[in-house]
Specification:
With 219 residues, this protein is an alpha/beta fold. The chain has helices at residues 2-26, 42-55, 71-79, 96-105, 147-150, 152-157, 176-186, 203-218; strands at residues 30-36, 60-66, 83-87, 113-117, 134-140, 160-164, 192-194. The protein has a single domain (2-218), classed as P-loop containing nucleotide triphosphate hydrolases (Rossmann fold). It has a seven-stranded parallel beta sheet with strand order 3-2-4-1-5-6-7, sandwiched between helices. The structure holds magnesium ion and zinc ion (ZN).
Length: 219
């Protein structure tokens, strides 16, 4: 019974995700879904990415998913991009239909890139596709170098892996070699980004990746 219910929910979510993807493809908009634990620095990565991509002449908007509050949307607006805040009211992941409704609220004229911040969680966002072209996993140094071992599905299914807060490496017992080895074992294809939002290191490489795929979508 429970299994059937889950199958039904995931099935209707998949249909909404497919519709989102079609809308983005038809409008040549590149969409990226970022997942990571609470406090991994997803919003900070967005702030740095918005600053860099805006400098490069790109137009982007943001969909923020949180259980409660519009704190992150306000930070994004402060960083210079329009943001639509979704409050899930308790749900620990975004559904594709929530993203469709958010898209209807945003003025998408001239928009090239949509960044989606999923609810802080490394479990169910992996099952609930939103239709984004890329799902980027954000892990961070204070969380420990064994994160890939503990959440293998999230790492295996990611289309890109960010290790954030690398400026803290000298201060914490985090073995970056071990972390990336575990990532290679689970998912050798996913591009790897080492980032510090404090120093700005690595943000340009992430933006290069985004621009490269934007060009492919437009081509
Ligand atoms: Mg956030
Ligand atoms: Zn959930």
């Amino acid at each position: 019974m429970r299994v059937e219910v889950m199958r039904g929910i995931l099935g209707s979510n998949k249909a909404a995700a497919d519709a989102n993807r079609k809308f983005w493809d038809d409008n040549r908009i590149l969409a990226l879904d970022f997942m990571g634990s609470p406090g991994s620095g997803k919003t900070s990565v967005f702030e740095g990415t918005i600053a860099e991509l805006t400098k490069r002449g790109r137009t982007l908007k943001v969909i923020e998913g949180d259980v409660a509050s519009d704190n992150d949307a306000r930070r994004i607006e402060q960083a210079g991009a329009e943001a639509f805040q979704i409050n899930t009211g308790g749900a620990c992941h975004l559904h594709a239909a929530m993203v469709s409704r958010a898209m209807e609220q945003l003025d998408l004229d001239g928009v090239q890139i949509i960044l989606i911040e999923n609810v802080g969680n490394l479990v169910c966002p992996t099952a609930f596709l939103l239709g984004a072209h890329f799902r980027i996993l954000v892990a961070s140094v204070p969380e420990g170098d064994d994160k890939p071992e503990k959440y293998p599905v999230a790492f295996r299914e990611a289309d890109g892996i960010i290790l954030n807060k690398i400026d803290l490496l000298p201060h914490l017992p985090f073995d970056a070699g071990r972390f990336w080895d575990l990532c290679d074992q689970l998912n050798a294809e996913a591009p790897q980004f080492a980032i510090s939002c404090t120093t700005g290191e690595g943000i340009d490489t992430l933006c290069d990746f985004i621009e490269r795929h934007l060009a492919e979508l437009a081509g």
